[in-house]
Amino acid sequence: MLRNKFKNIAFSLAIVMGIGVATPVFAKSDYNPGDILALGSDLTDAQEAALRKYFNAPDGTNTIYVTDEVIIEQLGLDPNDPANYAGGCYSSAYVKLLDDNSGINVKATNLTEVTESMLMNALITSGITAADVKVSSPFKVTGTSALSGILAGVEEVGGFEISLKQKETAQKEIETTVEVGDEIGSEEASTIINDIKTEVIKEQPKTEEEIKKIVENITNQYNVNISINAKDSIVNLMSHVNDLGLDYSELKSSLKEASNKLSNNLKELGIKLKEEGFFEKIKNWFKRYPYMIALLYMAFYLKVFEWLEQNIVPRYIIHCKLDEMIPFCEAFIIPYVFWFPYVAGTFIWFKRRGWEDYKKLCLMIFSGLTICLVIYYVFPTGLNLRLAQNPHETGILYNMVRYLRGIDTPTNVCPSIHVMNTVMIFQAVCSLDHLKHRKLTIAVHFVIMILICASTVLLDQHSVIDVVCGAMMSFVLHGLVYQVEWRDALAASRKRRTLFRRT
Question: Whole-angstrom Cα distance, residue 379 to residue 368?
Answer without folding.
Answer: 16
